[in-house]
Design goal:
The chain is α+β, with helices and mostly antiparallel strands and 129 residues long. The chain is built from three helices and ten strands. It has two domains: 46 residues, no CATH class; 75 residues, CPE0013-like fold (Roll), CATH 3.10.530.10. A hairpin with a 5-residue loop joins β5 and β6.
Length: 129
């Protein structure tokens, strides 16, 4: 049975509206792309959709209570919710360096979770004020 899948390419500002036609998991045709990158994007999204994980983790003694973090590589889209849940209980101590590894090999995907910014510790003045 032939099926069509719609995607919006995110590789450049054109944001091509892509349509992939498949039958029994085999790609028959991709239309709507202005370049080869768009065609490949539709096929990859169909076969193995991946996402970069971005979320926050708690910080002890930081100038702010949450640290933005990001995965070092995209992981299977089906694991993103589980990945965010796995990070929900993670807590780090300030100071934190930008790019510091917070969690290694999340869910066995090979993706590390790193700090997306530097975070300084709270000072005494912060605590008194």
């Amino acid at each position: 049975m032939r099926r069509k899948h719609a995607f919006t390419c995110i590789n450049c500002p054109l944001s091509c509206a892509l349509e992939l036609t498949e039958e029994d998991g085999e790609v028959l045709e991709v239309t709507g792309h202005e370049c080869e990158v768009g065609r490949r994007y539709a096929e990859e999204e169909f076969r193995d959709p991946r996402r970069t994980v971005t979320t926050t983790v708690r910080v002890r003694n930081g100038v702010i209570p949450q640290l933005p973090v990001v995965s070092t590589r995209p992981m299977p889209e089906a694991l993103v919710r589980e990945a965010v849940k796995a990070l929900a209980d993670v807590e780090v101590d300030a100071p934190v360096r930008d790019g510091q590894v917070i969690y290694r090999d999340l869910l066995g995907t090979g993706a590390d979770i790193i700090a997306a910014r530097r975070l300084d510790p709270r000072s005494r003045a912060d605590e008194e004020g």
